[in-house]
Amino acid sequence: MFTGIIEEQGQVASMKHISDQAIVLRVKASTVLNDVQMGDSIAINGICLTVTSFDEHSFTVDVMPETVNATSLRSLRAGSSVNLERAMAANERFGGHIVSGHVDGIGEIIRKQREQNAIYYDIEIPASLARYVITKGSVAIDGVSLTVFQVKQNFFTISLIPYTASITILGEKEVGDVVNIECDMLIKHVEHLLTFASKKEILDEAYLRANGFM
């Protein structure tokens, strides 16, 4: 589990292709290596991956074909910068929102506009994801917890403050770049629950309490 608060930017040191769609990725880092252990989860651009080896300056992860196909990792190259976040510790502040590291799909930046100290992005997403994005709701973009400012049909708008633009890779993104999208987990759980609710069941306080939502 993650919060979407990026700890540092790492750099791709190497990408070793085991097959056409399977990769061993080595990433240079510093902060996330402070207490790293084998098997730890580290989110790379919002994708939860497992540490398979590490040294003083880098760590490696195995990337399966499903992850390569469903995310923007296939666009990375040696030297690419990436957002890094360790799994959330139970004794730390919850600064962002609940992020699983399981990317729902990719979006494309279709507008970038600087306005005073903010950077606005319009991000186009597949129709299958649009129902999970709501105004003032949360979304993770390349692992960064952000608030949705506006939703219009097949795209939504977010805004970066200077700190987020400088500490993450999002500030360097341009029109045409693709980003990983993870929608709000709570919305997806509610939809899943309602899918299995029979017509006789009523979505009232008793129902929500019985199913763990209250």
Structural overview:
It comes from Virgibacillus pantothenticus. Catalyzes the dismutation of two molecules of 6,7-dimethyl-8-ribityllumazine, resulting in the formation of riboflavin and 5-amino-6-(D-ribitylamino)uracil. Lumazine-binding repeats lie at residues 1-97, 98-194. Its EC number is 2.5.1.9. The chain has 5 helices and 13 strands. It is α+β, with helices and mostly antiparallel strands and 214 residues long. The chain has 2 domains: 8-86, Elongation Factor Tu (Ef-tu), domain 3 (Beta Barrel), CATH 2.40.30.20; 105-198, Elongation Factor Tu (Ef-tu), domain 3 (Beta Barrel). The radius of gyration is 18 Å and the shape is globular. The mean pLDDT is 91.
